[in-house]
Design brief:
The structure holds 2 protein chains of 2 kinds. By secondary structure, chain A is of the alpha/beta class. Chain A contains 13 helices and 15 strands. The longest helix of chain B is centred in the first third of the chain and has 32 residues. The chains are: A alpha/beta, B mainly alpha.
């Protein structure tokens, strides 16, 4: 099946990029069959295989393995083996789990994880041990901000990214006074401050920031407050079971008719079936939409369905792209991951034809990507427009140049 | 805040309190009468919600889901009491905490195998699905009001059974003095079994009734367990009327806390609990220990 697929990384893009020189330099190495790299490259997958985020972990895992399978089990000509650790989304065990992968299991590269708290523990170990780490979901701004490092990449998003473009989208839709609502915790605060940054810059005014303790789901008091405030619109960030309940409560209160609800894509991703009709017409922003028709996405969704029987989503794409990114690095050094600097330089300059659209990386190794405005129709997050092209996280606090 | 909004928030508070009471009533029965700390109460709440989702999906009827879900929970409660819980009467609380914590893990794993980890929703019965207009832009689901009425009925039933029936008398006698009740030849142990099963069934009933206005998801029982304990401790351990008072107080504190003091709303109910315990160490309607 793999030979029918488009090469996810366009060779031309690769050559034209800053990596071109590096790639050319090792091109002869690519052709000579046996270099010293006989032992397979050990990839440590540290993901939530149980618990609330288990489904996300599985999709990331499936996406990553799909890419490696499409390359015949090899990246940059080098055999890949896997070692798995279930991080259970427990930040307190994050450091130990990561140390186990790096120390006892001797993983050459680590892929992980979903939960931001766990990911930050992994970032710390990766910084100390210089292990190559690719974060396939966790959005904590810090990972590619103050804690950025040459050996740390992210194939997903920063919390800032999907929210900042929404500010202009909502202002342009005629909403001048907006209320925000989210859980009172780190991710919620990061997402909302990015939205407010974009919204006030566009000229809007945030009338009130409503919060409730994480992960509480009793929204009725705050929904009544919104009805009393009568803002032009509401911007919300919730995820999982809380997102479903909020969307349903908001619709049941009849507020959607007069005060439209917007949100970061996490509000509707992965739980649309449970939200049912309550979610219809909801507009959100994210770096993916279910019906993107670029060839890479069409091919990806088909391959993912053939392999797993499931409909691929953003999490699967992030896992897939983590492997694609690693592939860029491995190709640049002909499979010899000991040439670390060259590998990292190639990865930093990667131009990937991702299912989500064009994907490249900023100096802090956070993705530069399109953020799409989507609307819920027919139980899917369908693309309305590109909210903002090539959104680049400001990487505040990152000292990498 | 204008009077209308105040009224709506008051309605929110009472409705939330009713829901809390429904879930906490089973816990206070088991805790107060059997002296067993059942940490798995929240897990049974979750299980009830999943049963509601599953049975309603198969049969298309919320009512069948409700009756069958409660019946299943009741039978499970009887079995558990027979196999595990009865060994715990009179044992120290650590053994009870360990066992019921183990039950949480088992139930959670069962849920994962049987129902998976997706988020689900349950549709309310069609004739309760509508809503009515409260203010110019806010409407209120009929089902939420129906829950209030339903909780009142359940509260009245529990109260009647405990104060007006023979079984209730035995239960009260047993809670007062277990050994003396046994010595008098009253089959207290058999009654115990049913009290435990009723407690579990009430937890599941809570999950089932709340499923249509909440969502059905893996961690839903955790927060509810903690709130239920706060309700029980606040109201007085073993006191059903106390649980009702405690639940309403928490509903009021939480709702108006979120409106007036949003920055500290997360701790307000615990502040309330601490204050009440300073004033009445055994809870608002708790019996004073001799």
């Amino acid at each position: 099946m793999s030979n029918r697929l488009m090469l996810p990384i366009s060779r031309r893009a690769l050559l034209s990029g800053a990596a071109g020189a590096a790639t050319l330099a090792v091109a002869p190495g690519l052709r000579s069959p046996a270099i010293a790299q006989n032992a397979p490259l050990k990839v440590g997958l540290m993901l939530p295989y149980t618990g609330t985020y288990a489904k996300l972990g599985k999709f990331i895992d499936d996406g990553f393995r799909l890419y490696v399978e499409q390359k015949g089990g090899k990246l940059g000509g080098r055999e890949i083996t896997f070692v798995q650790v279930d991080d259970e989304s427990k930040p307190e065990a994050g450091t130990d789990n990561m140390n186990r992968l790096v120390g006892r299991e001797k993983a050459d590269v680590v892929i992980g994880t979903v939960h931001s708290g766990v990911a930050m523990a992994m970032v710390k170990v990766a910084r100390d041990t210089k292990t190559l780490l690719i974060i396939p979901n966790a959005g904590a701004n810090d990972a590619t901000g103050p804690a950025c490092a040459p050996n740390i990449f992210r194939s997903s998003f920063s919390n800032w990214q999907p929210n900042y473009p929404m500010g202009k989208v909502m202002f342009d839709a005629g909403h001048k006074n907006v209320a925000t609502i989210t859980w009172k915790y780190a991710a919620g605060a990061e997402q909302m401050s990015a939205f407010k940054e974009g919204f006030t810059k566009a000229g809007g005014n945030v009338v009130e920031d409503l919060t409730l303790p994480f992960p509480e789901v009793e929204f009725q008091a705050l929904i009544t407050r919104i009805a009393q405030l009568k803002p032009d619109a509401v911007h919300a960030f919730f995820a999982g079971g809380g997102a479903v309940k909020f969307v349903k409560d908001y619709a049941a209160a009849g507020l959607g008719k007069t005060i439209p609800l917007y949100g970061a894509g996490f509000l509707t991703d992965g739980t649309l079936e449970a939200q049912g009709a309550a979610a219809n017409g909801l507009k959100t922003t994210l770096h993916y939409a279910d019906n993107l028709d670029n060839p890479a996405n069409v091919a990806f969704l088909k391959a993912f369905k053939d392999k797993t029987g499931n409909v691929g989503d953003i999490y699967a794409v992030q896992g897939y792209d983590a492997a694609a990114l690693l592939d860029v690095g491995m190709k640049a050094v002909g499979g010899d991951d000991k040439q670390r600097d060259k590998m990292i330089a190639a990865m930093g300059a990667a131009k990937i034809d991702s299912p989500r659209g064009p994907l490249s990386f900023n100096k802090a190794h956070n993705p530069i990507q399109n953020i799409y405005l989507r609307e819920v129709r027919n139980g899917r997050n369908e693309m309305v427009s590109i909210a903002q092209k090539d959104v680049d996280d400001p990487a505040r606090g990152c000292k990498l140049a | 805040m204008d009077l209308v909004t105040f009224g709506v928030q008051l309605l929110n508070a009472i409705q939330y309190g009713m829901v809390l009471f429904l879930v906490a009533s089973g816990l206070t029965l088991v805790f107060g009468i059997l002296g067993v700390i059942n940490l798995a109460h929240g897990a049974f709440y979750m299980l009830g919600a999943y049963l509601a989702y599953w049975i309603a999906a198969y049969t298309g009827s919320f009512w069948i889901a409700m009756v069958a879900g409660v019946a299943i929970a009741f039978v499970v409660g009887l079995l558990l009491e027979n196999v595990f819980i009865r060994r715990l009467y009179g044992r120290d609380h650590l053994a009870q905490v360990l066992l019921s914590f183990g039950l949480i893990l088992v139930i959670d794993e069962f849920r994962e195998i049987a129902f998976g980890k997706d988020v689900h929703s349950v549709a309310p019965p069609a004739w309760l699905a509508g809503s009515f207009q409260l203010t110019d832009n806010l409407s209120y689901p009929v089902y939420r009001l129906a829950i209030c009425g339903f909780c009142l009925i359940v509260a009245a039933l529990i109260f009647l059974v405990i104060t007006r029936t023979k079984i209730g008398m035995i239960v009260r006698a047993g809670a007062e003095n277990r050994e003396m009740t046994r010595v008098l030849g009253i089959k207290f142990d058999v009654v115990n079994r049913y009290v435990f099963a009723v407690g579990i069934a009430l937890a599941a009933l809570g999950g089932i009734v709340i499923a249509p206005i909440s969502t059905v998801f893996p961690g839903m029982g955790d927060g509810m367990l903690i709130l239920s304990f706060v309700v029980v401790v606040l109201g007085g351990i073993g006191s059903v009327a106390g649980a009702a008072v405690g639940a309403l107080l928490i509903g009021l504190t939480d709702t108006f806390g979120k409106v007036f003091f949003p920055s500290v709303s997360s701790i307000l109910i615990y502040v309330l609990m601490a204050a009440v315990l300073l004033w009445r160490p055994n809870g608002i309607l708790g019996r004073r220990e001799v």
